[in-house]
Amino acid sequence: MSSAGTRVFVARLAGTTVFDPLGDQVGRVRDVVALVRLKGAPRAVGLVVEVPGRRRVFLPLTRVTAIDPGQVISTGLVNMRRFEQRPSETLVVGELLDRTVTFVDGSGTGTIEDVAMERQRDGDWRVTQIFVRRSAPGSGLLRRRGETVLVPVDAVTGLSAADVAQGAALMLARYEDLKPADLADVLHDLGTTRRMEVASALDNERLADVLEELPGDDQVAILSGLERTRAADVLEAMQPDDAADLLGELPDAQAAELLELMEPEEARDVRRLLAYEENTAGGMMTTEPVILGPETPVAAALAHVRRQDLAPALASMVFVVRPPLETPTGRFIGVVHLQRMLRDPPHEAIGALVDTDIEAVSADAPLLHVTRLLATYNLLALPVVDAERRLLGAVSVDDVLDHLLPEDWRETDDEHVPTPAARTRVSRNAGRRG
Predict the structure, then answer these.
(1) Least enclosed by CB within 10 Å: which of 65, 208, 306, 337?
(2) Omega prior to 328 cis, within 30 of 0
(3) What is the CATH number of the domain that holds 80?
(4) Which of 161, 178, 7 is nearest to 95 (CA)?
């Protein structure tokens, strides 16, 4: 059991592995839940722990037996219900880091960089000290970084201000290693104001990746909260099919305004996709698969599928066409599978490796037909062509899954989530938050 007086800095705790008493990994700490009051030290009540399945659950600190460098030991009982933040609760990493506070001695303001909590003699954990960087004098290029100080929690005010403007640099630094889908989960769990602050601090490419993983309501709220020019830039950074889906959720006037602000070439692809019915191959496809001419050497084709921004499903094959190579292309010839390219000499032209047996679908092909073809032939993507057999795009298995799953699938808990090991005891009532 952690002894009284144990001090833990929350920013350093984020990412720490949580184990059960037998040494099996339960998950990783993502945040600390605290009750911030107008008077008195905030009380830390639990940890937000990410368990397998990307689910974030609540682990009461009463079920934590030890917090040591690099590990947190729990009793082994974990409530597997998804964590839902209550109005009275504050996420320390998500909502307190980067917050501006005022020193009660009148010496100015500062920004919270870390928070220390300590276990009391009665077993409770209290936030006792704040690590603050003082606001430095000057502005612009002449502005210097202020000194850092560790002060008692009652030496500052502003911890309980729900509407205070807040940066997001420190929080994002803690989460920079997260995949877009995991960061989307973090944003979804934040309050509306904080979610917008964090989203606004992301660069366009990162925000585009995260938006593609968020539920529709969150997507609309974030995009609508951005300055119009920046919203258009973020849409340009998204995959055309995802951008079209998002614009389809907006009022017509707002969508039209954003399309006008986008680069003409980017807007053209999105407008084409908006013309198709949602549950058709055209409505699901992307206009940016890997498209190459038949004379392309294998080595060059492999370089194209290595692109970091390419989804794994689309990296599984190259679509071979006659010029032009931008959709709608020249006549579609066929596909070359990644495995085939790996078996042939680098100088070989991909036109000699084409699989012409892949069945292309029309833009109006219904979802069920596309699903059956992908399942029947164990494919990750299908070509979509027009009446002249020009390639319009490709529909991938992840696009199909997005349309087959319920709209709220990102928010719905699974009935059965695998535990890290059979020995880990899991209870849906353990540590219930009464």
Answers:
(1) 306
(2) yes
(3) 2.30.30.240
(4) 161
Question: Tens of pLDDT along 227-263?
Answer: 999 999 999 999 999 999 999 999 999 999 999 999 9
Q: How far is CA 269 from CA 12, 162, 259, 320, 321, in A?
A: 45, 41, 11, 20, 18
> Shortest CA distance to 48 belongs to which of 167, 174, 158, 141?
174
Name the domain boundary from 66, 91, 116.
91
Q: Are 298 and 341 within 8 A, CB to CB?
A: yes
Residue % of the chain over a pLDDT of 90:
70
Q: Give CA–CA dist 286/273, Å, rounded.
A: 8
Give the range of the structural domain holding residue 316, as residue numbers without chain letter: 291-404
Q: Domain for residue 166, yes or no?
A: no
Q: Is there a single domain that holds both residue 217 and residue 301? A: no
Q: How far apart are CA 209 and CA 219, in angstroms?
A: 11
For 101, 133, 136, 140, 141, the CA distances from 144, given in Å and listed in that order, are 18, 11, 6, 9, 8
Dihedral sign, Cα of residue 237, residue 176, residue 127, residue 43? positive
Residue corresponding to tokens 């979802």 = 367
Question: Total structural domains in the chain?
Answer: 4
Answer yes or no: is 416 within a domain: no
- Residue keyed to tokens 């990307």: 54
Rounded to whole angstroms, the Cα distance separating 293 from 140 reads 51
Strands 381-385 and 391-396: antiparallel
Helix (H) or strand (E) holding 208: helix 204-211
Q: What is the pTM of this model?
A: 0.70
Are 298 and 382 members of one domain? yes
Residues 247 and 301 both lie in one domain? no
Domain annotation covers residue 76 = yes
Pick the more confident residue, 428 or 370: 370
Q: What six digits make up the tokens of 83?
A: 């964590």
Burial class (CB in 10 A: 0-12, 13-18, 19+), 392: buried
Same domain (yes/no): 271, 347: no
The reply to whether 262 and 297 lie within a common domain is no
Residue 123: count other Cβ atoms within 10 Å of its Cβ: 11
Distance CA 18, CA 67 (A): 9
